[in-house]
Amino acid sequence: IAGITQAPTSQILAAGRRMTLRCTQDMRHNAMYWYRQDLGLGLRLIHYSNTAGTTGKGEVPDGYSVSRANTDDFPLTLASAVPSQTSVYFCASSDSRGGDLGEQFFGPGTRLTVL
Amino acid sequence: GQNIDQPTEMTATEGAIVQINCTYQTSGFNGLFWYQQHAGEAPTFLSYNVLDGLEEKGRFSSFLSRSKGYSYLLLKELQMKDSASYLCALMDSNYQLIWGAGTKLIIKP
Question: Which of B29, B37, B50, B96 to substitute to test the interface with A, most A CBs within 10 Å?
Answer without folding.
Answer: B96
